[in-house]
Design brief:
The complex is a heterotrimer of chains A (220), B (258) and C (240). Chain A is mainly alpha-helical and 220 residues long. Chain A is 80% helix and 0% strand. In chain A, helix 1 (2-39) packs parallel to helix 4 (86-123), helix 2 (45-55) runs antiparallel to helix 4 (86-123) and helix 3 (60-71) runs parallel beside helix 7 (158-164). Chain B is an alpha/beta fold. In chain B, strands 1, 2, 3, 4, 5, 6, 7, 8, 9 and 12 form a ten-stranded mixed β-sheet that branches. The model of chain B is unreliable at 1-6 (pLDDT under 50). Chain C has 240 residues and is of the alpha/beta class. In chain C, a hairpin with a 2-residue loop joins strand 8 (202-207) and strand 9 (210-216). Chain C is globular, with a radius of gyration of 18 Å. The chains are: A mainly alpha (220), B alpha/beta (258), C alpha/beta (240). Chain A binds chain B through residues 72-75, 78, 81, 83-84, 165-168, 170, 180, 182-188, and chain B through 14, 19, 22-23, 27-28, 43-47, 57-60, 161-165, 167-168, 171, 183, 186-190, 217, 219.
């Protein structure tokens, strides 16, 4: 039993490491992207927004397959030796949730921009500076976008299964472990793992909500 | 190959193998023994046989351990490996529901059993995923003189799933299914399924191991991969394989020819 | 020691949006000195005219010309206060500091100048308060402090007290008078006739996107030159 707990810990920690890393990367890339789309007018902007929104629905298993083909030794980035490692899983999940974070951020920031635009331009804030000011000011409403990305990353199994290989002790995360136990017919264990996963995501969301509320009281 | 009394990990190899082998629990038993002796960590990617060989073809694994001899020989012929060695065999069992719609009770001949299933159009679940188990099943249909591609009907369920998932489906549907004994022994969700035919020679399932050809795939870890293969076929490795039991029953029977 | 950005000249400026013509052929010149009040009914185009002058909108015809060519320098020397103040999610002080940062004031001097601006509008005690929890009147005063800190040559105000109660409106008017006394050119749009009389020296009367009249304030109220202006003066309820 003790061995099972140690193994469960390892799986939980790896799941958190992979999904939180992906959320961090996707946030660093996605928020500026969303801000730029919200603020800048350029030819093809509508097409870009529609495409970004559509990419929110990227099937995880398709992303997994594409990243697998990229990282395979037979593929263009094979030299990196990333396939079947947590690094590959982080890459795949980042690609998967980047559109979600960027598209939801764009939506929130476009609404905020409507409120701020005149004043910021009047004060002389241009382009990138205005976008960054907007981003920082809207940071609490952007928490929702980040949480949506986290939810998708921690829930998916298709991408991490293909690029990670579900290797015992190396790339096995909660979702792939659940899939494995289910396919072994050990449904009680699979369900148990499932509840642990849900509990973790709930705790993360609750924490984020508390941060949001505290900040709203402080900053208005 | 000399074995180092290494406490430190010297590196790792990637072994592409099958879901049924992993789900039998063999690797959990076997690999720590090898790692303690050699200091080499073994990372197993367990997928269907077809995909395992594909991983080898791409050079994404160092060693391939599967149980589908015709496919392994094709792999050899394509120069993706230089040598194939027998390691062990396990067997398949034909499982069926208590209701036994094809009236197989008492049959010892798996080919006859398949013919009766077809005649009765009894529900039958196939893996359908180019796995070793799937190929074994197709072989038996052929031996039974049944062109399953043409003769299948709604009674034949082609699921495209791994062994455990397919067993789940068969248990839920009260269907017949061919499974490897290892997965069956550790399978918990049996429903009304039980072993109907076993021991037929045609149900034996031979495992072969190959080192992915370093000449064709320079990234292959040749020495460590070869060390693993050498250990598997050595007296030590073969004994470790034989020692693996579920509920006191031996699952895998070593038969490497030195 | 640079020269003034005024006069501001509008050459036959027009503005249309969604097929609707909002400003039609306005030519005028805004000089330094007297406070200019832009009067007109709702929908006359006051807000759009203000934004055209401030540079937030581009005219669809005609030209808006200042006496200063460098856009960065121009931006720093005119400020605008809107009907609804927009504050960042920061303290009152930080909002003023932000404006100073944008204007290129060296970082060591920003806080002191910001505090001085807050003092000027009587918000010193609220310096650390989150700007967004301040009352409407306080936020509008903060907007004026933000503008004050920049020491602009021209201050545009678009109906600055329309959303405020009379006492808050009075406080705002006091600050505007202080701007005027300090030499800032005031250009203010309002439909509050009492306020126009209290703060303005000259009136530009706008109707349906055209300038119908321009006159010193008392002359406009005593003897409006056009029938429409006369009707406007009679029809609007003056806030005392």
């Amino acid at each position: 039993m003790f061995q099972l707990d140690a193994e469960l810990w390892r799986i939980v920690l790896l799941s958190l490491e992979v999904s939180l890393s992906a959320v961090l990367l996707a946030t660093l890339l996605g928020l500026p992207l969303g801000a730029a789309l919200a603020v800048k007018r350029f030819p093809g902007r509508r097409g870009a927004i529609v495409t970004l929104n559509a990419l929110m629905g990227l099937p995880p298993v398709v992303v997994g397959l594409l990243v697998y083909l990229l990282l395979s030794r037979a593929g263009p980035l094979g030299e990196l030796g990333l396939l079947f490692t947590p690094g590959a899983m982080i890459i795949a999940q980042t690609i998967l949730i980047l559109p979600i974070i960027a598209a939801l951020a764009r939506q929130a920031l476009e609404d905020a921009w409507r409120e701020y635009e005149e004043q910021l331009r009047s004060l002389g804030a241009q382009g990138m500076q205005a976008a960054l000011t907007l981003l920082w000011d809207a940071r609490f409403s952007l928490i929702t976008a980040v949480l949506a990305g986290l939810g998708r990353a921690s829930a998916e199994v298709g991408a991490v299964m293909i690029v990670g290989g579900n290797i015992d002790g190396v790339t096995r995360v909660m979702t792939t472990a659940i899939a494995l136990e289910t396919s072994k017919g050990d449904l009680p264990l699979a369900l148990g793992l499932g509840f642990v996963l849900i509990a973790i995501v709930l705790v993360l969301n609750a924490g984020a909500q508390l941060v949001k509320e505290a900040a709203q009281r402080r900053f208005g | 190959m000399g074995v180092a009394l290494a406490a430190a990990i010297a590196g790792f190899i990637t072994v592409a193998s099958t879901t049924s082998t992993e789900q039998s629990g063999l690797f959990r038993h076997l690999l720590p023994i090898f790692t303690a002796k050699s200091g080499i960590e073994v990372r197993v990617v367990a997928v269907g046989t077809g995909q395992a060989l594909d991983i080898g073809r791409r050079g994404d694994a160092d060693v391939v351990l599967v149980h589908a001899k015709p496919l392994e020989e094709k792999f050899l012929a394509e120069d993706h490996a230089v040598r194939r060695q027998d390691v062990m065999y396990n067997d398949f069992v034909l499982l069926g529901p208590k209701s036994d719609p094809a009236k197989l009770a008492g049959t010892k001949d798996v080919v006859t059993a398949f013919q009766r299933i077809r005649a009765a159009r009894a529900p039958f679940v196939s893996r359908g995923d180019r796995s070793g188990t799937h190929f074994a099943e197709l072989e038996i249909w052929k031996l039974a003189g049944i062109d399953i591609g043409r003769e299948k009907g709604p009674w034949y369920r082609d699921t495209g799933q791994g062994m455990g998932a397919a067993l789940n489906t068969a248990a839920a549907m009260d269907a017949y299914i061919l499974a490897d004994r290892g997965t069956w022994l550790s399978f918990r969700n049996r429903g009304d399924l039980a072993i109907v035919v076993e021991g037929d020679k045609r149900l034996y399932n031979q495992y072969g191991v190959m080192l992915v050809n370093p000449a064709k795939h320079p990234s292959v870890k040749r020495e460590m991969g070869q060390a693993f293969i050498d250990w598997l076929v050595s007296a030590d490795g073969q004994k470790a394989i034989a020692d693996y039991r579920i509920g006191g029953e031996q699952l895998f029977f070593p038969n490497a020819h030195e | 020691m640079s020269s003034s950005i005024l006069p501001l000249t509008l050459d036959n400026v027009a503005y249309a949006s969604n097929g609707q013509r909002i400003i039609a052929g306005v030519s005028l010149s805004i000089e330094a000195g007297p406070s200019t009040v832009i009067l007109g009914a709702n929908g006359a185009g006051k807000s759009v005219l203000m934004r055209l002058m401030h540079g937030l909108l581009r005219p669809t015809a005609g030209r808006v010309r200042w006496s200063e060519a460098d856009p960065a320098s121009l931006r720093r020397r005119q400020a605008m206060v809107f009907q609804r103040p927009v504050m960042l999610r920061r303290s009152a002080l930080a909002n003023v500091v932000y404006a100073l940062q944008l204007a290129g004031v060296p970082s060591g001097e920003r806080e002191a100048q910001a505090r001085a601006a807050l003092d000027e509008v009587g918000l010193r005690h609220l310096a650390q308060r989150p700007a967004r929890v301040l009352s409407g009147g306080e936020q509008q005063r903060l907007a004026l402090a933000r503008a004050w800190a920049l020491h602009p040559e021209v201050l545009f105000l678009d109906e600055p007290t329309a959303n405020l109660d009379p006492s808050a409106a009075r406080e705002i008017e006091t600050v505007i008078k202080a701007f005027d006394a300090a030499g800032t050119k005031i250009v203010m749009a309002t439909h509050n006739l009492g306020q126009a009389r209290r703060l303005g020296d000259e009136v530009i009367y706008l109707q349906a996107g055209r300038v119908l009249e321009r006159a010193p304030i008392e002359q406009f109220f005593a003897r409006p030159a056009t029938a429409e202006a006369a009707a406007f003066v009679k029809g609007e309820l003056p806030w005392v």
